[in-house]
Amino acid sequence: MGLITSGLLGVAGGAGAETLAEAASLVYEGNPQLLAQRAQLRAVQEAYHQALGAFAPTASARFSRTRTDVPDLDVEASYASDQFSLEQPLYLGGAGHASLKLALAQAASGREALLQSEQQILQALVVAFSAVRRDEEGVAIARENVQVLEQQLSETEAKFALYEVTITDRSQAEARLAAARARLLAREGQLAQSRGDYLAVVGQNPGELAPPPVTPNLPATIDDALSRAERNNRNLRIAVYTLQETQARLEMAKAQARPTVSLQVQNAESPLNSFNPVDSVRATTAGLVFRQPFPNGAVRSRIVAAEAQGQRDELLIDDARRQAIRSVSQAWNQLAAARATVSARRLEIRAQQTAYDSVKEEQRLGLRTVLEVLNAEQELRDAKFGLVETTYQEYVASTALLAAMGELRFIDFVPGLQEISPTRRRAFHAPWVHVLDKVDSIGASDPAPIETVVARSGGRPDRSLALPPASQDGP
């Protein structure tokens, strides 16, 4: 009687088996971490409207009533006055435009953080889903192993009763059976833990799990993988947008030393004199207000600090790129090694199965001992456990490679998924604020594209494993 021979991706689920796509859809719509990250992005996007508010006019009004009493002259008077003023910024020294750039960079960074969270949670789902399937197979193999050893012990005891084998043979069979039962308990404990991990990610216990789909959009070469990582790796993109935030803060600091210009209109009414409240005068004035801050150490200190922060962020971009390349290289080599190992394990199982069947027949003819049969059975079982583990590692490594490139997405695993991507809320702003932003942007520079920033760094791995084709054959 042989052991089961399926690999992790080779066990077909039933007609009603739960698919990875169904689990991913549940996670995408209901995982609390994702819901929280989307809410955080909506909050960050409000900074754009807040920044536009710097170009909006401000109005103020003052109303007063004054009572004048001169006891010696037996005279008293009471009069009212009012004043209304409106001020419209025309030029903010670049601070308004810099605030908008900061808000846009923060929103872009927040969106990358959301995509990064989606990747991390999807990767956790893939690991949990694959681990449950791996451990279910491991339990099945371990249980089959117990059944085989129980039969082997029964045969050995029958031969012992006929004095065909020794007590040593019987004790060896008993020991192997006890060890197999212990391994079965360990495998069942591991399965319970993996089911708990699945529950934490999906929010419900796993049912019968169907085989996962082929990992989509895998690169053909490591150079392709590295190029895609330099464009899309989430940590790298967050580092670039962080630099853009710092550059915007530097412009805001410099703007504090520049002049500002605004249009001010005032309308006021007051009596001609305190004792003649009937006759009043109303005056309307309009003019440009020019303000030039005096230089001080605080402004200069903010500029120096922002410049130092910018240097730090540029170095962190280089570090993020190196980490992205490292992650891609690791995942690529792990995937290549796992694929090669899966193929080797399949060949090993075929050979071990033949060896086990032969040793079993030879033992029946008296040419092999009980220990030799037990050893052959153990080698076959270990090969099958190894195939289950390496098949799991292959699938997990393939999704880790996509994550390292920044291309592990729910939409690729859930056909027809309606993506939830928070967009900036539409709000009314005065139609001239965008014109004023253009004026305020005079002398400002646009941020460099991500590809240009990343290209300033260099270096790629000079050696990596060749990626074997994915095997679709069962063992």
UniProtKB/TrEMBL annotation:
Transmembrane segments: none annotated. Residues 139-166 form a coiled coil. It holds the Pfam family OEP. Signal peptide: none annotated. InterPro entries: OMP_efflux (IPR003423), T1SS_OMP_TolC (IPR010130), TolC-like (IPR051906). Keywords: Cell outer membrane, Coiled coil, Membrane, Transmembrane, Transmembrane beta strand, Transport. GO terms for cellular component: cell outer membrane; efflux pump complex. It is found in: Cell outer membrane. One of its GO terms (molecular function) is efflux transmembrane transporter activity. Gene3D superfamilies: Outer membrane efflux proteins (OEP). Residues 453-475 are annotated as: Disordered. Belongs to the outer membrane factor (OMF) (TC 1.B.17) family. This is TolC family outer membrane protein.
